[in-house]
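Quick one:
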Amino acid sequence: MSPKGLLCLLILAVCFLPLPAAGPPALPRDTLPDKLSLTEIPLGLESKRPVPADNPLTEAKVRLGRKLFFDPILSADRSVSCASCHHPDHGFAGPTPLAVGIAGKKGKRNAPSLLNRAYGAAFFWDGREATLEAQALHPIASPLEMGATVTEAVKRLQANREYDAQFRRAFAEGVTAVNLARALASFERVLLSGATPVDQFRTGKVQALGASERHGLWLYESRARCWRCHSGSNFTDEGFHNTGVSWGKTPADGGRYEVTRQQSDRGRFKTPSLRGLTATAPYMHDGSLATLEDVAEFYNNGGGKNPNLDPAVQPLGLSKSEVKDLAAFLRALSAGVAERRE
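Output:
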């Protein structure tokens, strides 16, 4: 055979080699600062961070919760961690419309941001839990998320010498389900986001916002009526509202109704904070809106029409440029956004 013919055979052989099997996605890495402050509160947030009396913040608890958050040891097959859905480089939210858990299973909702949840009054999109501690263990036992049991997770941690020692440094009782929840909740309580251009503007630094962002702030507080639900220093009333997102889609998501079984709660979902939005796309409980302009236009059109639509959601009559200005203001609610000047 000629050299040219041999080369052709080699190329064909390489082309038909079987591709390597796709493995599980890489686990998100801990890219946070070495030490997270237990006392510092960013500009713009309430100065007193709510902390339950039975779980005071300590460095030992936060360090333990941080390690657990990034460790796949809590999932049934050790393939996913808390960070797999709540990416630290994505505002501790999910980058996909619907959360993706163990074995690639899709949840039915977007993984929400964990930033500023220390100030939360209800947790999960449907508000099924009232504390971070109560929320923390649900993903472990969910067949769509980590697919394990809390009992199994506790046994693994008790059998791990490093974790056993670290739990004993943080809690007198060592590894228990209650302390597992307390450690994860302690870590989540230090994930704060503030000191944005909007916060600087409100202290008198007028140059922190450009003309478009200032006009967006005016719209937010007036014609756009955003403040009716996104109120307070964390830009959320922590309440539940039906805005018509994904209404009529199959399978139906009842939202708050699935907790209360009250017909008036059908289609209601918890109001998310507006802080840190530049990092947390896609938006809404179903991840159905890709950009902040999409979000602003959704409300400009009066939301999704349905029998339970919140009375506050009505067509706004904003022009295209006003929609852009409102989105610009929303972006300015993210820490690290560069200062704008006219």
